[in-house]
Amino acid sequence: MGVALVLRSEVPSVVAGSHVTGFMPFQEYPLLPKEMAGMLMPLNNPRGLPWSTFVGVLGGTGQTAWMAWEEFAKAKKGQTAFVTTAGGAVGSIVVQIAKLAGMKVIASTGSDDKVAYVKELGADVVFNYKTIDTKAVLEKEGPIDVFWDNVGGTTLDLALDNANTGARFIECGMISGYNSPDLKPAAPKNIMKVIEKCISMHGFILPFLFAKEGLLGKFWSVMPGLVEEGKVKGREQVWRGLEKWGEAMHAVLTGANTGKAVVVVADE
Amino acid sequence: MGVALVLRSEVPSVVAGSHVTGFMPFQEYPLLPKEMAGMLMPLNNPRGLPWSTFVGVLGGTGQTAWMAWEEFAKAKKGQTAFVTTAGGAVGSIVVQIAKLAGMKVIASTGSDDKVAYVKELGADVVFNYKTIDTKAVLEKEGPIDVFWDNVGGTTLDLALDNANTGARFIECGMISGYNSPDLKPAAPKNIMKVIEKCISMHGFILPFLFAKEGLLGKFWSVMPGLVEEGKVKGREQVWRGLEKWGEAMHAVLTGANTGKAVVVVADE
């Protein structure tokens, strides 16, 4: 995903002088065929936020976090949320939104550096799931009312075991399965808890949320303000220059990046 | 659960001359301690429906079916529902409610007698899951938008595989697990479909629905009329006389009953 300033356009829906976002090539002056115009979204930026924001906390990751939370979390002050991959681009935004809703936040992430970062974001309990037992944390700090699941498998089973009555599970991803031979996460043995604990489990992909009437509009009416006020922050790692593309991509694919990877091809 | 006429009361909330429902002993003149008064629900029957209705289609089974459907199904005309245990006390009501909502109904049940019964109730596709392959039926008649799950296990996996985008799964029971050594249904291998297909899965037990504001009131404002008009029917098997209790219980426990088992201890 990129953000670009439109220099010239032969299509009425794309206005010269405006900014747009969408899939576009890594080029300083990309030339897009007319057929792709429908996939470019115009951007309004009355608050003058950095344009990189629109590929991060106000882009797909921010939209995923905020819209799924808004649609499914039914957040209540004083309740407890458990956020997995809390150091990631999506999870870190979920942590901040959950805290803004007045919830206690338990957060898991995969490195001590990320633990420190997620604590800074305000999570109440943060742990490195590679060195600390998730089961023990949930039994001590739970039960949980909202589960932001990016992991699936045994973590999902533990969440089912440690859920409160009426808990909401937001199923954003199941990365525990992505490296298994059949690409499937471990089947949840405790699925019966869904009934016993009256759990609602919501799976989604981003286009499904875009189709929910009014939800994206609500995102644009709320999130830029939160970003401007510093209440929701994204962590970016910026590479400057077209030639840095390979370096940035390598960091993303090896997990070495420390925030949303942004390549600034050119300033305005 | 029983229905009784109050002959005498020393508690203001239970009025002599009125009818009540609740747990009560199999006796012609049960004498209940004051402490149990709070668990008796007064019944209004302005339509003069048979009192047995209030332990069946207007009792716990009807409440389970109607309230969970109302809360979770988000029924849309022309969409497809798959109802398991459709010949049972709850499932048979779900079938009728789904048809009233204008849906195509696929129904599974465990005997040819029940298949005939569920067809009478208006289901579009009815099959005996013991003799016909559920997978083949769903692949031919699906995809499904609402899944009424009373079974869990492999049937849940098949439903996940044959769900439409945005499907709603209503998790009422997982009887496939009740006879397994660890009392658990088979873990769903296809749980990842919850994300891919943007499925919402809702588990519940009846007290959880009672706690939803206004839902029980809505049940009472809608269902008695549907029952009176014959739009929702319950099948009852009636035993007359206190001494038939053992016979009725034996039928329920062996599955030999052909409808909601009702023992009429005494008429008014």
From TrEMBL, chains A, B:
Annotated SUPFAM superfamilies: NAD(P)-binding Rossmann-fold domains
TM helices/strands, residue ranges: none
SMART domains: PKS_ER
Molecular function via GO: oxidoreductase activity, acting on the CH-CH group of donors, NAD or NADP as acceptor
Pfam family membership, one: ADH_zinc_N
Record-linked CDD domains: PGDH (cd05288)
Domain Enoyl reductase (ER), first and last residues per copy: 2-263
Residues forming coiled coils: none
Gene3D superfamilies recorded: Medium-chain alcohol dehydrogenases, catalytic domain (3.90.180.10), NAD(P)-binding Rossmann-like Domain (3.40.50.720)
Alphabetical list of InterPro entries matching this protein: ADH-like_C, ER, MDR_fam, NAD(P)-bd_dom_sf
Name of the protein in question: NAD(P)-binding protein
